[in-house]
Amino acid sequence: MVPFLDLKRQYENYRQEIDDAIQSVFQSGWFILGENVEKLESEFSGYLGAKYGIGVGSGTEAIHLALLACGIEPGDEVITVANTAVPTVSAISFANAKPRFVDIDPISYTINPDLIESAITPLTKVILPVHLYGQAANMDAILEVAKSHNLKVVEDACQAHGAEYKGQKVGSMGDIVCFSFYPSKNLGAYGDGGFVSTNNKELAQTVRYLRNYGQTNRYVHATKGYNSRLDELQAAVLRVKLRRLDDWNAKRRELAKYYHELMKNNNVILPKESEYSKHVYHLYVIRSGRREQLQNHLTEKGIQTLIHYPIPVHLQESYQDLGMLKGSLPETEQAAKEILSLPLYPEMTLDEIKQAGESVCELLK
């Protein structure tokens, strides 16, 4: 049996440090917006190369609050992709804005910058690129379009902790960058959690107010806000894990390289690292026209797989009100029929990678 993910292995490797961190929170008696959240905000923003960091309740809430901080109002449009987790687009809906989808680059699976300009309307306020599977989108091209049209850029980096773009960590290129600390992420908590990073002091302060009911001082509320606070227990755990993030990402890259070697001469499309990017392989996504047959074959071999994502957002029942028909995003839709995520996480053994890779090769010779 090769599990798609086994978080117990990571915990067992660092049990004492994690348990000590959790116990220290209980002993302090302080559980909301305390010392650990403040230190994590400083440590993770420093790691990213950003001036400011704000811990929030989830990755979805990070995007939601970021959009509001950027001035999104009801009816405004946000340009993004449909090849993403639905929560990316849920955040746009929370802000009472309208997603406007453009197609993806078929190699990187991230937004195709060449298609953004034609999607801009007088209602467009934000471009929201998604750094998918652990790889950065083409930020120079995106920022150039945004600048020429006076648009904000809110980055969804929920799968890109530690990923790099032209040698720079993802986390400070756009106006605001949003992360998720969902347990399965490269930097994951033991519950929900999220993070916003930015170099803009005003945007940082606005997100800080919005996450805590719009409160500027105790019982003083300058604006209508939300309850979206990263708690002390999660922050304490994340601080322990942050110290290992680069090592874990290096291990992911090592395992991905082994997958590459095992499957390079077979009838399967392997993930490709863009020349401008350092991929951290949150997910190892292959592609085959025989996806269903391959997934069934791997299941029979005891190898768990997932699909990220089988139904593009514009074809989800919940977003039929957008009126987008099947065939409107051809690259996105074709990828959704063919992509398959293989198991990959730092605690996997080379033998498990070999089992999975060789099982793919058995079918796709």
Polypeptide structure, described:
With 365 residues, the protein is α/β, with parallel strands linked by helices. It is built from 13 helices and 14 strands. Strands 1-9-8-5-4-2-3 form a 7-stranded mixed beta sheet, sandwiched between helices. Strands 7-6-12 form a 3-stranded antiparallel beta sheet, with no helix packed on it. Strand 6 and strand 7 form a beta hairpin. Helix 4 crosses helix 8. The protein is globular.
Sum this structure up briefly.
With 365 residues, this protein is α/β, with parallel strands linked by helices. Helices cover 39% and strands 14% of the residues. The strands form four sheets. The chain has a seven-stranded mixed sheet with strand order 1-9-8-5-4-2-3, sandwiched between helices. A three-stranded antiparallel sheet has the order 7-6-12, with no helix packed on it. Strands 10-11 form a two-stranded antiparallel sheet.
Give the key terms.
single chain, 365 residues, three-stranded antiparallel beta sheet, seven-stranded mixed beta sheet, alpha/beta
Describe the secondary structure blueprint for this structure.
Layout: H1 7-13, H2 15-28, H3 35-48, E1 52-56, H4 59-69, E2 77-80, H5 86-94, E3 98-101, H6 116-119, E4 124-127, H7 139-148, E5 152-156, E6 164-165, E7 168-169, E8 176-180, E9 194-198, H8 201-210, E10 215-217, E11 220-221, H9 232-242, H10 245-263, E12 277-278, E13 284-287, H11 291-300, H12 330-338, E14 339-342, H13 350-363
Parallel strand pairs: 2-3, 2-4, 4-5, 5-8
Antiparallel strand pairs: 1-9, 6-7, 6-12, 8-9, 10-11, 13-14
